[in-house]
Q: What sequence folds into this?
């Protein structure tokens, strides 16, 4: 793994700059403007928010080029965009558009049901989702410069993000107490690259920033992710599917900064209007679970 | 003497680690009352618009400006330079503590981010070069007559000092070279009283 490669360092460097911030899904330039004014550290340009992808169905693809351009021209903060899992051509197009980060995302319909993009040769950094440590380390092995939990996008339900944060955290802590002779067997169990397993065992953390995503709907949800070790939070449908996006966006930004201050969180949780309506994850069929996409 | 790191958003942890490696104790500053407990402050890299938004929420902006005027030693990197500069392009509010004109994201989007060699002034010691990690970096396009330039990327000034304020458009906190943080700690001691 080439952690001291200059290109990889500047990719991880941008992820470092986004720590303690909120990355907001936006579908128009006007939403991007609202997100930036509310204090977003970056925006994610996409065609439909996950809740609409879920309800409308059909194939979900990379956003339209005009839309990405329009959003890039509207805000000064980094602009991210999603490509389908394994869709190397969409990824190259997003790189040509000079988006600041590519999310190879399970929220879009996968283009390849076995392989993810080899992210090393790209100049633009990638973020990828994970449900556990093995998946996180496979993506880092492919060159991801940032990891996020998958959670369950478009659900408004934090339970899956919590499950994934807990799992990754527990599996990292487990590695730190294993004997050096046990690491290869653990790498086999995790289905993760051995060198990365050894790195995590030695350092007790992922080698790239670890953010949370999937189901954040309230300031308290965002604060919970931070308490569980996330270094930043993605919010998808939770803002622009709520009754007052501007106020909710601002409150979630405050919650990610002041997550250790319960009095401040109480204040931030007042007067927000209605959150997006959520889904009971237990009632989703396996095919409806976006987090099961990715390999 | 604890050194504060403004921990509203950005790479504040990287600065805290660099300060601790340089022998200081670092504490996060998120509120006006936490600001009162520090004798020097680092403004990290991150998004300047996000930091401004959060600085304005509980009067932290005004307290920071007041303490800076009283002589609080400050180190800003990347977004920190944008917050410290007197003039920002495109126009954006700032603390206006350094006589600089700065263009945001002037080297380009993330595809233009790079590690490039820097030329250092003798004040930084040997060797006279360093690694400059530039990430969506601002560019200093005009330097006031009172400003001392301590590092260059080609002909661009990238590390500047005026009185108790030190500012870098790159990220020394993302390298193993602690000279910028050590210089800041020496400046803080001299002026701390």
A:
């Amino acid at each position: 793994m080439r952690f001291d490669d200059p290109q990889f360092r500047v990719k991880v460097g941008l992820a470092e700059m986004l720590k303690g911030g909120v990355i907001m899904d936006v579908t128009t330039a006007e939403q991007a403007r609202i997100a930036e004014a509310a204090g977003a550290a970056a925006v994610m340009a996409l065609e439909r928010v996950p809740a609409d992808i879920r309800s409308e169905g059909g194939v979900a693809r990379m956003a339209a080029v005009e839309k990405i351009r329009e959003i890039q021209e509207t805000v000064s903060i980094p602009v991210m965009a999603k490509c389908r899992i394994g869709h190397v051509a969409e990824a190259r197009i997003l790189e040509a558009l000079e988006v600041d980060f590519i999310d190879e995302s399970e929220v879009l319909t996968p283009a390849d049901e076995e392989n993810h993009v080899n992210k090393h040769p790209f100049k633009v950094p990638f973020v990828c989702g994970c449900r556990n440590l093995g998946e996180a380390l496979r993506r880092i092995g492919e060159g991801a410069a940032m990891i996020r939990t998958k959670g369950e996008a478009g659900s408004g339900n934090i339970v899956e993000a919590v499950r994934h944060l807990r799992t990754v955290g527990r599996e990292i802590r487990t590695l730190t107490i294993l004997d050096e002779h046990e690491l290869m067997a653990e790498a086999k169990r995790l289905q993760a690259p051995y060198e990365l397993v050894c790195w995590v065992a030695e350092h007790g953390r992922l080698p790239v920033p670890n953010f949370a995503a999937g189901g954040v709907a309230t300031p308290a949800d965002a604060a919970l992710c931070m308490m569980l070790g996330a270094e930043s939070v993605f919010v998808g449908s939770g803002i622009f599917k709520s009754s007052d996006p501007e106020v909710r966006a601002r409150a979630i930004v405050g919650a990610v900064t002041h997550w250790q201050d319960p009095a401040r969180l109480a204040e931030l949780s007042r007067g927000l209007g209605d959150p997006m309506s959520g889904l009971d994850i237990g009632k989703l069929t396996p095919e409806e679970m976006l987090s099961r996409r990715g390999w | 003497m604890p050194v504060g790191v403004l921990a509203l958003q950005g790479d504040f942890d990287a600065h805290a680690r660099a300060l601790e490696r340089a022998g200081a104790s670092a504490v996060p500053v998120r509120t006006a009352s936490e600001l009162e407990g520090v004798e020097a402050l680092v403004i990290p890299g991150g998004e300047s618009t996000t930091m401004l938004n959060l600085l304005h929420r509980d009067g932290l902006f005004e307290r920071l400006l007041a303490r800076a005027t009283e002589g609080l030693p400050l180190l800003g990197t990347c977004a920190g330079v944008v917050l410290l500069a007197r003039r920002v392009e495109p126009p954006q509010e700032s603390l206006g503590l350094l006589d600089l004109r700065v263009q945001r994201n002037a080297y380009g989007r993330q595809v233009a981010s790079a590690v490039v060699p820097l030329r250092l002034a003798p004040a930084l010691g040997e060797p006279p070069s360093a690694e400059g990690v530039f990430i969506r970096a601002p560019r200093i396009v005009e330097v006031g007559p009172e400003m001392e330039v301590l590092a260059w990327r080609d002909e661009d000034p990238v590390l500047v000092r005026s009185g108790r304020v030190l500012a870098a458009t790159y990220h020394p906190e993302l390298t193993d070279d602690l000279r910028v943080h050590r210089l800041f700690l020496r400046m803080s001691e001299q002026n701390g009283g």
Q: What stands out?
A: Chain A touches chain B at residues 6, 9-10, 13-14, 16-21, 36-42, 72, 76-78, 95, 98-101, 123-125, 250, 253-254, 256-258, 261 (CB under 8 Å). Strands of chain A lie at 22-26, 42-45, 79-84, 101-105, 126-130, 146-149, 210-211, 233-235. The first strand of chain A starts at residue 22 and ends at 26. Residues 52 and 283 of chain A are 18 Å apart (CA to CA).
